[in-house]
Write a sequence for this structure.
C-alpha cells in the first residue's frame, strides 16, 4: 500500500518526494546481506558523509536510520552497530514509494 502523498511533499523545484516515516518498514526487502558498520564519532557528527561514502549520495540517511530503528542520528553513540543495506535495495524501496 502506498502512503498518501500530500501536496506539500514537493521540493522547491516542484518534484514530489516521499515522507520516509510513512513507509511500511516491514515491506523492506534485503536482496543481499547488509553491511555491519560500527558507528564512530565522525559518523554521528557528519552522517551525510557516511552516506555519501557508502552510496555516493546522502539522501538515504533517513531511510538507513529508520531501518535501524534510530529516530535521529543524535540517538547514536560511538560503538553502536548499524546495518547499511546495499544501494540497489534502497533504490528499489524508495522509488516504489516516491513514484
Amino acid at each position: 500500500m502506498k502512503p498518501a502523498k500530500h501536496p506539500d511533499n514537493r521540493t522547491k523545484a516542484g518534484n514530489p518526494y516521499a515522507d520516509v516515516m510513512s513507509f511500511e518498514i516491514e515491506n523492506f526487502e534485503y536482496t543481499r546481506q547488509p553491511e555491519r558498520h560500527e558507528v564512530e564519532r565522525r559518523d554521528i557528527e557528519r552522517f551525510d558523509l557516511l552516506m555519501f561514502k557508502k552510496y555516493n549520495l546522502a539522501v538515504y540517511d533517513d531511510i538507513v536510520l529508520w531501518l535501524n530503528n534510530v529516530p535521529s542520528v543524535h540517538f547514536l553513540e560511538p560503538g553502536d552497530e548499524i546495518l547499511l543495506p546495499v544501494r540497489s535495495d534502497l533504490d528499489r524501496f524508495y522509488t516504489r514509494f516516491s513514484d
Observations:
- Residues 32-98 form one domain.
